[in-house]
Specification:
The complex is a heterodimer of chains A (99) and B (247).
Chain A (H helix, E strand, L loop, with lengths): L9 H12 L8 E9 L10 H21 L10 H15 L5
Helix pairs in contact in A: 1-3, 2-3
Chain B lengths: L5 H9 L3 E7 L7 H14 L1 E2 L2 H10 L8 E6 L4 H14 L4 E4 L1 H5 L5 H7 L6 H5 L7 H8 L3 E4 L13 H19 L5 E2 L11 H10 L3 E3 L3 E4 L23
Parallel strand pairs in B: 1-3, 2-3, 4-5, 6-7
Antiparallel strand pairs in B: 7-8
Helix pairs in contact in B: 2-4, 9-10
Classes of the chains: A mainly alpha (99), B alpha/beta (247).
């Protein structure tokens, strides 16, 4: 077991992954933090300060879970399943957590 | 075109471009107390997201409410989405989003169980004991007056099984035509089975835009689609196989 710079242990990440996959779909929802992507233009409008602050925190967590759960070379860059896995754990563990 | 990766999502999050969604499927009456506890907690912590709110967020980048936005999304078109989940969302002041496999609603009651089992629609025991499994078109119309309804294909299909113009017409175009005729609105969004994203297949991307959809809900993104007048910034990549699914 080790602790990352973000305070998330590798064993904790694995336990969270199992927990969020063991849920019953008829008794609880599947939380996901999803990205907003505007396919009309390259540069999206600027976000508000609270969203930027929280987004920084969420991005750090996403990077941490990706590093712990779906690292290269076992998972190739661009593997959408890897992204989904890291997002599932992030969303399951931190959905209502503000920085 | 936006290939969804950890890096692209981290970049979007750091730019403040994200929203919270919670995906639901069958919501049986027997589990209403559990659902109510869960949704009440979300309603306390977050603010509802209407279609106007989503439009404004994409157009301005600014979220204009005190609490972060949250979308409860009820997939497939189950009867209990209309009679259990929607009334609960009404009581809690939440705007719910309903991606509906339109042919599920049009299938005769006698064959709805077989339709569900043939098309990856997950059933619980209570679904089999009611008078019907899918909501009616009239119930969908009523939902559209308070919430957001949109097609989830006709027969709950992934884009990897939609191969030609007839498939596109049946699974992409016709669901919107039928839904708009019932609701008197323009269905604003679409979702594939398996939650595939825009940017994977030119055939499917162009079909979504030509059909008049504004948003695509995928596993990891809500994408604001280009319009016919303003095509995508880059040509989409070639088609790929399905990805792990929540839907």
């Amino acid at each position: 077991m080790f602790v990352t710079g973000d305070g998330v242990e590798a064993s904790t990440a694995s336990d969270l992954l199992r927990s969020c996959h063991d849920r019953r779909l008829d008794t609880e929802g599947i939380p996901m933090v999803v990205a907003l992507v505007d396919e009309r233009r390259a540069a999206a409008a600027a976000a508000s300060e609270p969203a930027l602050r929280e987004g920084e925190h969420l991005a750090d967590l996403l990077d941490t879970y990706a590093r712990l759960l779906v690292p290269e070379p076992d998972f190739r860059p661009g593997d959408e399943g890897s992204l989904i896995t890291a997002l599932q754990v992030l969303s399951y563990a931190h959905f209502d957590q503000m920085p | 075109m936006s290939a969804p990766t950890v890096a692209s999502h981290a970049k979007a999050f750091r730019a403040g471009r994200y929203l919270r969604v919670v995906n639901y499927h069958s919501t049986p009456q027997a589990n209403l107390p559990i659902l109510e506890r869960e949704l009440a907690a979300y309603a306390e912590a977050f603010a509802p997201v209407s279609l106007d709110d989503l439009d404004a967020l994409f157009d301005t980048g600014e979220w204009h409410k005190d609490k972060p936005g949250f979308l409860p999304v009820f997939y497939e078109g189950y009867r209990n989405s209309a009679v259990v989940a929607a009334p609960l969302c009404d009581r809690l002041g939440l705007t719910a989003w309903f991606p509906v496999a339109t042919q599920f609603l049009s299938t005769s009651v006698a064959h709805q169980e077989a339709f569900a089992r043939a098309h990856w629609i997950y059933l619980v025991d209570e679904d089999l004991r009611g008078e019907r499994i899918a909501m009616t078109w009239e119930e969908l119309k009523q939902l559209s007056e308070r919430h957001v309804v949109f097609p989830h294909t006709a027969s709950h299909e992934g884009f990897d099984t939609i191969l030609d113009d007839d498939d596109i017409r049946r699974e992409v175009v016709q669901p919107k035509v039928e839904m708009d005729a019932v609701t008197g609105q323009s269905a604003p969004a679409f979702a594939w089975l398996h939650g595939s994203a825009y940017g994977r297949s030119a055939l499917h991307d162009e079909a979504l835009v030509a059909a008049g959809y504004t948003y695509l809900f995928s596993n990891t993104m809500i994408q604001r689609l280009p319009t016919l007048e303003a095509p995508s910034r880059q040509p989409p990549r070639s088609s790929e196989a399905g990805v792990p699914s929540h839907h």
